[in-house]
Structures are given as C-alpha cells and as structure tokens.
Amino acid sequence: MAIPEAAPAGPGSGRGSGGGGPAKLNPADEKQLNRHPVSLRRIAALFAPHKGAIAVVVLLITASSVIGLAQPFLVRAVIDDALPHGNTRLLLFLTASMVGVAALTAAIGVIQTWMATSMGQRVMHTLRVNLFTHLQAQSLGFFTRTRGGEVQSRLTHDVSGMQSVVTSTATGVASNLTTAVATAVAMAALSPGLSLISLVVLPPAIWLSRRVAMIRRDVTDERQRELAALHTQVEEGLSVSGVRLAKTLGTIPRDADRFRARSETLVGLELRSQLAGRWRMATMQIVFAAIPAVIYLAAGFPATSGGMTIGTLVAFTGLQAGIFRPVMGLLNIGVQWVTALAFFSRIFEYLDLEPQIRPAAHPVRLDPAAVRGDVRFQDVHFTYDDGTEVLHGIDLTLPAGTTTAVVGPTGSGKSTLASLLPRLNDTSTGRVSIDGVDVRDLAPEDLSRIVGVVSQESYLIHASIRENLLLADPDASDDQLWSALAAAQMADTVGALPDGLDTLVGARGHRFSGGEQQRLAIARTVLRNPPVLVLDEATSALDNTTEAQVQLALERLSAGRTTLTIAHRLSTVENADQVVVLDAGRIVEAGTPDELRAANGAFARLAAHTAQQEDNAA
Ligand SMILES: Nc1ncnc2c1ncn2[C@@H]1O[C@H](COP(=O)(O)OP(=O)(O)OP(=O)(O)O)[C@@H](O)[C@H]1O
Ligand SMILES: [Mg+2]
C-alpha cells in the first residue's frame, strides 16, 4: 500500500480533541504564528473573568482521577480478602463501593464537562461578537483585499475551533496528566517490580499504535482534501452563476469529467481509509491483549513476582491498561498547543486590524431633515493602499439641490471620487464637506441618512421585496413602500407579481433583471429620502425601454437633491446643471453642458465618442 507524503491539511480537517491518534503539525498554523505571534498574557486575559470556574474544573478533574484509582484496590480486596474467606459482609461493602466510585466519577465528569463547555462557549461568544463588530468597521479596501470566504471562515470556523480546542484539549490534557501520574504512583505502590517491567513494555506498544495511527491519518487527510475539492466543485458548479458560466463557456462535459475523476479517486481513498482504520483497531486489540499477558508471565517467575497476591496482580494489570490512553494523549500536547495558538493568532490578527475609516471621536450632529446639501471637495488627494495616487487635488463645489455629472475615461477616478462622500473611503489629504462640516466629523448614523448611494451593483439580500425595502426604513408602511416603488418606476412590475411585496428576490437578486434590480435599489433610496445623492450609473447598456425607465426613476429621485452622478449616457449629462470632466485623477474641464460643448475640448470629444457608441448600440 502506497503511503502518501505528509501534506498540509486544509483548515477543514478537524482536529484538536485528545483522541487516540497522533496529531500533525499543520504548516499553515506555523506560518500563521510566525506572521502574527500570540502572547500568552492576551489569551489569559480572555479567560481571566472565568478564573473561579477554571479552578473548580481543575479540582474536579484531579478529584475524579484520584477517586477512580480506588477501583483496582477494591478489586484486590475482593480477591484477596473477601472471596477466599467467604466474608459476605465485606464482599457486599466492597462491591457496593465499586459501583459507588464509578457513579461518583461519572457524575463529576458530567459537572466538569458542563462547566468547561459553558465557560468555553461564553469566551467564544465574546470573541465572536467582538470580531463581527470589529470587522464591520473595516473599510471596503479590507474586503477587497481579503479572499472571499476567508473572513467568514475566521468568524465561524476559527472561533468555534478555538472553543473546542480550549474545552476538550485543555481539560483532556489536565485529565490525562492527573490520570497518568496518579496511575503511575498507584502502580509503584502495588508492585515496584512489575512497574519496572511496564516501563519496558509500554514504550514499544505506544510506538506501534502511533505508527499505525499515523498511516491512517495521512490517508484520511488525503480523503478529506479530495472530499473538499468535490464539495467546492458542487458548490461552484451547481449555483446560478456557476451554471451560467459553464453553459456559456461550454465547459459542461469537462466539468463532468473532472467530477467523475474526483469521485473515482474518492472510492480508492475511502477504501484505504477504512482498511487503515481496521488495521489500527487490530493493532490496538493485539497491544491490549499482549500487555497483561507479559505481566502475567512476569508474575509467574519468582525472580520478578516478588511474592505478590493474586489480587495485587489483577489490580495491577487493571491499572496498567488504564495508563495507556492518557500517555498517548499527552504525546500530542505539542501539536495541539500549536493548533490552539494558531486559532488564537488568526482571531487576534483580525482584532488587531486598525479600521481605516474611523468614526469621529466627537461627532458633529447634523439633522438630516435640515441639511441644505452644499457639498465641497477641497484639494482632495486620494491614494489606494497599494500606493498609487488616484486623485490629484480635486476642487469641486456642488451647490445645494443641483445635479453634477462626472464624466471621463474608464479608470479616471470617477467611482473613487464618489466613494469619498459616503465615506466608503477617506481622503488622503484635503477635505470633503457637507454644509461646511467635514464628512469625517459627522456621526456615522447622520452621514448615512444624509448621503444616499445607488451604485452599479445594487445589492439585494436574499429575502422578500418588502424586507429589502424595509432595510432603508424599518418603520415604513405598505403605502409608503408602494409609493417608493412608483417613484422608482417599479410599482407596475411588482404589482403584477402573484406574491407582490412578498416575492423573494432570489440569491443576490437573480430573480429580477438588472434594470429591475436597479429600480428596486432606487426605491430603497427613495424611502431613505437623503438630501445628498451619489449615483454610479450602470456602464452596461440596458435596453432602450428599461433604460428610459431607470433614467426616469433616477431623475425623479435626484429632483431637489444635491446629486453627484457618474454618467455614461449623454441624456444624463444633458440634464445636469454642471458637468465635470475627469481625466487621470484631475478635473480637466467644468461648466454647464452648453459651455463645454462650445469650448470644443475634452467634453466635446467625449460626447461625440459616446454619441457614436450609442448610435452603434441602437
Ligand atoms: N481598491 C483599489 N485598490 C487599488 N487601486 C484601485 C482600487 N480601486 C480602483 N483602483 C484604481 O483607481 C483608478 C480609478 O478607479 P475608479 O474605479 O475610480 O475609475 P472609474 O473612473 O470609476 O472607472 P469606470 O468608468 O471604469 O468605472 C483605476 O486605475 C483603478 O485601477
Ligand atoms: Mg466606476
């Protein structure tokens, strides 16, 4: 049988509890710890509020190991004292004690598990909530940089992994340690000679079972990876976007072949994994039979027996069988320690992120209903994380209640400029103000009421139309929802649906067309009724009727509000009070549409180009 090379286990291959098998250092864990070391003091601080509970748990674990040791001594008394002399009273007492001791240790075990788990859960709860709220405060840049799924995995997988490592591994280590030490002491007390023999027998037995377990673990790891790959393919391949991609790229047969090959590989791996598991059980059976056999053998030879009683011999073999597991468990401590630290490291790494967009320490309150909506950009520079400056000194005034169209080639910085107003990004230098107040000084809840955004991707949550609209205003009545839909040119469409407002929008809004999704997003903004508006028009051409509807919805929405619109359509630009031409992060022209056309500069060229494109499209 080929034994696969040890390979990094994915984060999905669960481990952590004591168990019997040896654990393996995960290279990803080591890398994580090198990148973001963890201080023990910080971990201790997490558990500090639960000091009392921890002390009780340790006490319970020690008590249960020590009480459990009474068992072999009771057995010895039964065999040596009660049975040979027909002492039924003593026999009754001893056997009742045996059951009593078992019941007591079992009860202690339950209480200890309850205490340890509830403490672990409480620490996990605190961490989970801290992490969630901390990540919410991160800027868009953080989520742009971070691989999809990574954030979610840390919040769910790592936090719960940390909890299971803490409760099961920590209590496992404590109980293994106390059991091993107490058993060893009891063995030495019963028979020093046989204890010496154990010292010789145990190591090879432990080595053998670890060896077999390691082979099994490698096969299982590989199976796990294949299973995960299969899982990913199912997830990606059988989703709306996945099926669309596969059908349009014509990769369906190729995907099927890949799936078949994976599934085939799994057949072999499953078989090997099961067999290796069977081998492991067989080895353990042999080891567990062999160890007492060696002890009985030694007890039969006068040189090693030391004249012990039968009862002592039986008690001793019982103890010896009981030391095997805890010692095996303790051998994994090192690896489990690293695993646990890596869990903490991944969580702390996120908690240590400094949010780039910080809420004002002493926010200036502006009543959204009383805001006039005078917007100014003053000498605004903006640099993305990667160090490239995208905006180089923008000066721009948007008078209250007017519409300003920003035009310019792709990549010129239009979306970046717009993102500064709702504080999706903060200026590197310079300031953006509303009614003279720097947006960075505004309370976040005021800013989100003052500035409304309709962007190229309208994000709808997987819920009903009503729930999507209520996000904007939880107290809105159905009448208000319908009039918002009417303003967004969407009332007829929704009214024609059998379920009306209760229609589910589907995953990410796939139930609706792009234009409909956009109009739902517009209705949402109508409900919020913000005095300042940022519109990032869709670049993709909608069909003429839809475009006209969206256009009308947007015009109604922007009436009377200070509007910054990123325009790709000539009609939008024509209706604007002011047009700004952006090129490579600089304003190269500004004025009314008529002025700019007369100037016959950058805007005139852009307009001619767009008109030609729109003709071609029509
Ligand atoms: N998160 C980011 N990190 C680094 N650079 C970015 C980031 N987002 C945008 N850029 C860069 O900033 C520049 C301006 O981008 P922006 O999205 O503002 O352009 P745009 O004018 O809106 O273009 P389009 O018309 O295509 O929407 C581009 O060169 C882009 O590559
Ligand atoms: Mg853009």
Keywords:
618 residues, alpha/beta, ABC transporter transmembrane region fold, Rossmann fold, 3 domains, six-stranded mixed sheet, four-stranded antiparallel sheet, elongated, disordered N terminus, binds adenosine-5'-triphosphate, binds magnesium ion
Task: Write a concise synopsis of the structure shown.
By secondary structure, the protein is an alpha/beta fold. It has 23 helices and ten strands. Magnesium ion binds next to helix 14.
Describe this structure in words.
- There is one protein chain.
- With 618 residues, this protein is an alpha/beta fold.
- The chain folds into three domains: 204 residues, ABC transporter transmembrane region fold (Up-down Bundle), CATH 1.20.1560.10; 116 residues; 245 residues, P-loop containing nucleotide triphosphate hydrolases (Rossmann fold, 3-Layer(aba) Sandwich).
- It contains 23 helices and ten strands.
- The strands form two sheets. The protein has a six-stranded mixed beta sheet with strand order 6-7-8-3-9-10. Strands 2-1-4-5 form a four-stranded antiparallel beta sheet, with no helix packed on it.
- Helix 3 packs antiparallel against helix 5, helix 5 packs antiparallel against helix 7 and helix 7 packs antiparallel against helix 13.
- The site of adenosine-5'-triphosphate (ATP) has 13 residues, from helix 6 and helix 14.
- Report the radius of gyration as a whole number of Å: 36 Å
Helical proportion, percent range: 55-70%
According to CATH, what is the topology of the largest domain? Rossmann fold
Uncertain regions: pLDDT < 50 for 5+ in a row?
1-20
Main sheet: strand order? 6-7-8-3-9-10
